[in-house]
Amino acid sequence: MLDSATAFYWNDRYDTDMANVPDTYQEATQSRGKKITSSYPALRSLLSKLSHQLHCPIIYTASDVQPKYSQPATRSLQSALPKSWATFPDLRLLIQRRPVRGFPLATSAEEAARDAKDRSAAVAEAPFEVAVNYDGNEDWNGETRDI
Questions:
Q1: Cα→Cα distances 139→82, 130, 132, Å
Q2: In terms of domain of life, where is this protein from (predicted)?
Q3: Per residue in 43-98, pLDDT tens?
Q4: How confident is residue 34, by pLDDT bands cut at 50, 70 and 90?
């Protein structure tokens, strides 16, 4: 179990971008050789090899690095992980907490402070929703798609 595959997304992106910035004007104007790539493809490859060698499933979590608020009816969310991970999972699940209605626009700071305890309880008690994520399922076989 890998929790979370997106934990080092921004660090990896920064390191990759910085490794590919030319050090000098001369480097910038000349054709550069091999570019440094993200470490995520190597991680995916290693996890695939382990899964085959140990005959076990790989379970990982991934958070959306740029959360989008969507309708609960939406059952598709593009992965925040690099494209090399698109065909890695056999099944992708969306797990999200049901949204709690926000304060009305006319709510004063005093009213919000007074209702804070009830609001925290409502957020804590909000149920979770789980659905199959159909984004990128073009490569899934019919059996997986019908779960």
A1: 17, 21, 15
A2: Eukaryota
A3: 888 888 998 999 988 888 877 755 555 554 555 566 677 777 777 777 778 787 88
A4: low
Looking up tokens 């608020």, which residue turns up? 69
pTM > 0.90? no
Beta strands in the chain (DSSP E): 93-97, 128-132
Whether omega for the bond prior to residue 4 falls within 30 degrees of 0, making it cis, is: yes
Distance CA 87, CA 76 (A): 15
Task: Name the nearest CA neighbour of 65 among 50, 79, 84, 49.
Answer: 79
Q: Sketch the domain layout of the chain as residue ranges.
A: 1-68, 90-147
Phi then psi for 96, rounded to 5 degrees?
Answer: -145, 150
CA distances in angstroms from 38 to 71, 81, 86, listed in the order given? 32, 11, 15
Question: How many angstroms separate the CA atoms of 69 and 100, rounded?
Answer: 12
Nearest CA to 61 out of 83, 79, 41 is that of 79
Q: For residue 143, give both structure tokens.
A: 């059996």
